[in-house]
Write a structure and sequence with these properties.
Elements lengths: L9 H63 L2 H7 L9 E8 L2 E8 L19 H92 L1
Antiparallel strand pairs: 1-2
Helix pairs in contact: 1-3
């Protein structure tokens, strides 16, 4: 692992030690965040799968009913019957926070005001299969709204998990090893300099003692 290019000084050593402590603390927090995100992500994925299965089943039934209705009445009558729907939909989109991720919360604000008579045509001129298809489409709508909410939540959380995973890996495999390697290098350099200084001091001491002895010998 390549070390950081810094001057091997004691001040730099202390600074790197503080950065290493911060990096390790951040690494632990990010790992905890990643694990919790994955846990909640899996729960939302399970709910998303359940809603998708419900929607696919109900939409499949509606499609089959439409196909059967086309066998008994003409396409023109079907188009005229469905040209002016009786109900409209207004959605309110808010957000909520999941581990720092802003995810949507979608609400059908017209749901309580919906006309219970969902058929925009007279029942005598159409087939029962068309009534059943329209009923299934109306009933599947709340599930579709919830499915859209969960799909977007899954997408946003997956992106955040990937970003968090990259940060964890960058700290674990790049930054922390670099700090450790650089601290080790500076420590070795400082120890080497200290041993060199000690050796020089010992030589100076020996020279001074030798000089003092020579002076005493000369006086005698």
């Amino acid at each position: 692992m390549a070390r950081i290019n810094v001057n091997p000084t004691r001040m730099e050593l202390n600074r790197l030690k503080k950065r290493l402590i911060t990096a390790r603390r951040g690494h632990k927090l990010l790992k905890d965040k990643r694990d919790e995100l994955v846990k909640q992500f899996m729960n939302i994925v399970k709910e998303n799968k359940r809603l998708r299965q419900i929607c696919e089943r109900m939409l499949g039934e509606a499609q089959n009913d439409f196909m059967l209705s086309r066998a008994s009445i003409s396409d023109q009558i079907i188009e005229e019957s469905l040209m002016y729907p009786k109900n409209r939909i207004r959605l309110d989109v808010q957000t909520r926070n999941i581990m720092g991720v802003r995810v949507p919360v979608i609400t059908n604000i017209d749901d309580t005001e919906r006309d219970p008579n969902i058929y925009p045509y007279g029942i005598l001129s159409t087939a029962a299969e068309l009534d059943s298809a329209l009923y299934n489409i109306t009933e599947v709508l709340p599930y579709l709204i919830r499915l859209a909410e969960k799909e977007k939540t899954v997408q946003l959380m997956a992106s955040e998990i990937e970003r968090t995973r990259r940060r964890v890996n960058a700290l674990e495999y790049v930054m922390i090893p670099q700090f450790e390697e650089t601290i080790k290098y500076i420590t070795m350099k400082l120890d080497e300099n200290e041993r060199g200084n000690t050796s020089r001091l010992m030589k100076v001491k020996d020279m001074m003692i030798k000089e003092v002895r020579n002076k005493k010998d000369a006086q005698n």
